[in-house]
Amino acid sequence: MFSLILVISAIGGYLLGSVPFGLVITRAAGLGDIRQIGSKNIGATNVLRTGRKDLALATLILDAGKGGIAVLLARYFGGELAGIVAGVAAFAGHCWPIWLKFKGGKGFATYLGTLLALNWIVFLMVGLTWLIIAYARRYSSLAALTSSAAAPIFAWIWSGPLLSAACALLTIFIYYRHKENILRLLDGTETKIGGEKSQTGG
User: Fold this and answer.
1) Which of 144, 148, 142 is nearest to 188 (CA)?
2) Residue 123 backbone phi and psi in degrees, to 5
3) What's the rounded mean pLDDT across residues 99-110?
4) How confident is the model at residue 48 (pLDDT cuts 50, 70, 90)?
5) What residues does 197 pair with on adjacent strands?
6) How far apart are CA 102 and CA 104, in angstroms?
7) What is the pLDDT of residue 196?
8) pTM, full prediction
């Protein structure tokens, strides 16, 4: 019976995570297909490139919310492990959504929403790390990479090995989804928060 709950949690989390809120919101606002501008990503950072901060904020909240809701529902019916499974599945759904032929976002907002539902202290530490790096270096991608790398450590300290292992798995996926950003960071062509590109060595 418990195995069935885990399977249902995984499927439900994946389907919820697959909802492409960034694409839905920008189309509803008459801005066309978000996948045709900027990074061609469906996440909040690319929505911000439309110039609509309100839509970017809404996308961020909804993308985070689907991870959090998946966790809360699964945990209510199946316990902590079911919640973690649902959160990981929601993250996978955002990155590889069935509705968009498995071409989705990079997952950091959904990662944060999952953490908020699982352990608010870990969420707070990861979010604070993101803010510090984003403010200091002005790269959203670098902030996501740095804070997600720290997440398993924070999870080990404030939760335990189970959440730490889940965070480690999600962090591996985060790095995979950001592989193009990593290359641009290394060669100095990554776009900073605010729009301009960095200069090599700067």
Assistant:
1) 142
2) -55, -45
3) 93
4) confident
5) 191
6) 6
7) 52
8) 0.91
